[in-house]
Each structure stands twice: as structure tokens, then as C-alpha cells.
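Re: the request from the purification team.
They wanted to know what the chain is likely to look like in 3D before they choose a buffer screen. I agreed to run a prediction and write the result into the notebook, where they can find it.
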Amino acid sequence: MSCACGTSDNKNIEADIQEKINNHPCYSEGAHQHYARIHVAVAPACNIQCNYCNRKYDCSNESRPGVTSGKLSPEEAVKKVLYVGGDIQQLSVVGIAGPGDALANPKATFKTFKMLQEKAPDLKLCLSTNGLRLPDFIDQIEKYNVDHVTVTINSVDPTGEIGAKIYPWINWEHRKIFGKEGAKILLEQQLKGIQMLTERGILVKANSVLIPGVNDKELPNVAKKLKEMNVFLHNIMPLLSSPEFGTKFGLDGVPSATDQETMAVQDACGMDMTLMKHCRQCRADAVGLIGEDRGDEFTKESFVNMEFTQLEDMYNIEARTEKHEMIENWRAHLEAANERVKLEEASKAELSSTGETKLVAVTTGGNGLINMHFGSAQEFLIYEAGDKAIKFVMHRKIESSYSGTDSSEDFNPIDEIKVTLGDCDLLLTEKIGECPMSELSEIGLVTDDSYSQQPIEKSVFDAVQKYFFQEEEVELG
């Protein structure tokens, strides 16, 4: 009898979690090509120093280094959300991710959430934090229905030695605590806060910055600990480090983490934790689908002088509900078309009967389709595929699209693309010209634009069978 009750409870929990993540583009890889998010930059202050961050700019844990977001008051932030939500009806999530730390700015953070509860009740609420003050604000997080919290945790080393290499100091009880002592306090607070969140049924995503030579060997230990604490998702973010960013790591010559290093650490951590692999390190004022940023379209001048009543009319919850129903219908059709060939987390044995798999790059503008011209792409989705199934691996960004322009006469974007896709076997794109196709063939990359406007997952699986897993060899030219 007790066993049956336990099974029923688990099913209820699973249904509750599914409802929370279904249209959340960060917590669900399946949602990220269909639903949009907005980050509102109401939290400028921070209470720790990280060696991957330059305090002149946004928190580098939440944004690409060197980015400065336009700061907003809570009232301005809510106006922006209503204005954007009326225009981008697939908006489903609003988050506070900086530009400092959400919980180092508690008054602005929770005032914003309170107003959003009242004026945009259909949106999911999220916050990101380094975790130092997380235990202090659990009640407020629960009170305002913030049911998705991201905590950055880069080490679980109890000695503080690894943490001290990442965090020079923390601001704790009105004084700076340096080195290992500060790192140990931070870790204690992070673990305490995460435990309190999960006990209250609040979904936790953990961010970890992969810092080569510092915590690359430590992150599997982080994943094990997160699993023990019932953390929902682990996001391993590559360190982005260049001297021009002005960070301590950048100035000291600590290299950025490569795509291949990131994949290796993901493989090591994925044995214990479900991984978020579609993160784009969005800026603290990001707007739109993950993978795009439409923030520049929604300047403060366009909404700040409007009345709330006018903005609420524009927001139009009824029209937004209809839009979300249309998206769900499309997703159902897309899932049927993809024939369930994708596994969320899978070993090579689950993907391939022989252990052989291929890496496939895809260009897309969203909606789960191969619908972006190669020349316009500034990122590629990467899948691993075998003769049995496929799985999503990661996204890879490039600085300039093939058709883009650059001020340097010596810069050729195809060179960067060759490096980015150097370990891939196949590229599926909406359209590609003969010149780039020829260039990419020099690195052994097969290109195919015959799957234009087709569902991504089924196309990846079919194309890999066509080129690599048929019994008779196929001409690749």
C-alpha cells in the first residue's frame, strides 16, 4: 500500500515540474526555440568579486564579458515587461539576473516581482544569484512565486582552496572576507540556500563557469553534490576570457574554455546531472528567444512615459493565451513529425548499435526548423547522432556570420567557422552557396541544404543515416 502511494506522489510531482518547465526556455531545451524571455536589469550591486568578472560591466556569469545593460527602476522594469509582452506574445518568462546580483539588491528585486505578480500574472518569475544571501530571502522568494532560481556554484571544495582562486573576496556582514575563508562562507551559504529551495519545491538550476586549469577537474564533484541535493538542472558555462574584457583571469592569461573542453566536462558531469546545453550567456537586459537579443528594439524612451493602464491593455493576456495555445499545437505537430528520435541524455551505446556517432551542426532561426541561411548564421546547434537516436549537445557561437562584415582586411569569417565546426561531420542548413560549401569540404565537412524548412531532429537523424550509416557507402561529393 505504501509503495502505491509513493508512486502516485511521484507522478504528481513530475506533473507539477512539467507544468513549471513546459514553456520555460531556460529550463526546457524543447521550449527554447518557441518561447521568449526577458531579463530586467534592476539589480546593479554585487556582494562578491569574481576573477571572471569586471565590475565595470554586467556580471559575467550572466552576460558575455564587456557588456553593459541599461539599468531600470522596478517601475520602469514592469513597464518594459508589459510593453515587450504585448509585442512578443510568446514571452513566457521574466528574470532578474543582474547586472550585479539579484539578492544583493533585495528591495528592487522583490518590488519588481510584487508588481509583476499583479500586472503580468501569466509570466513565470526567475532570479539568478551567487547564493551568498540566498538563505536570508527564501521566504520572499516563495511569497512572490519565484519558482525558478539559478545559483552559481563553481566549486564544492570544503577547504576553500579552489574557491579562493575564483573569488578574491566576499562582502559578508558589512566587511570584506578574503581568500579561503570567504570562499568557505560562500559555499556554506550556497549549499544551505539550495537545500532550502529544493525542500520548498522551488526548481533550482546551478550555473558553473568552466575555468581551465582552475575548476575543470572539480566540476564533476559539483555535479555529484547537486544531484544529492535534488537540483533540477546543471549549466556548465565556458569561461570567456580575453585581456580586453579587463577581468583578472583575462589579464592573467587564463584561456577561454574551448567547445571541446566544454563538451568533455559536460560528458563527465552528465553522468550525474541533467545538463542545460542550450545556454547563450544572455545579458542582464536580454529580450526575445534564446539565441537572439531584441533588446535594442525596446529602448526606455519607447515605454517609460506610458501609463500602466495603457501598457496593460497592450499586454492583452487573452491574446497572449491564444498565442501560447497556438505554440503548443505547433509543438505537438512538430513532436509527431520528429518521430521521437531524440533522447535528452544518452550514452553512445544508446545512440548507436556500434558505438559510432557523428556530430551534426544545424542553422536555425527557431520554431524547431532548419530555417536559416548559412550566410546569416551566427551560431550553430550541435547534435550527436548514431544509427539509433540523436541527442542535443551544445550551441556554438561565432563572432561574425559568413555574410557579415568586419573592419579587418585580414579577417575571413569562414576561417572561424572552420575552427568552430572542425570536429563536426555534417552541416544542415536552409541554403548554402557553392563557395562556402567548397571551403567547408576542405575540413571534411559534408553540407546539405535539402532539408530546408524541415523539422530539425528528424532531419538530423535521417541525414546521418543517409550519409554515414547506410549499408552501402554513399557518394559524399
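For the purification team: The domain at 15-302 is CATH 3.20.20.70 (TIM Barrel).
Please add any questions underneath this entry.
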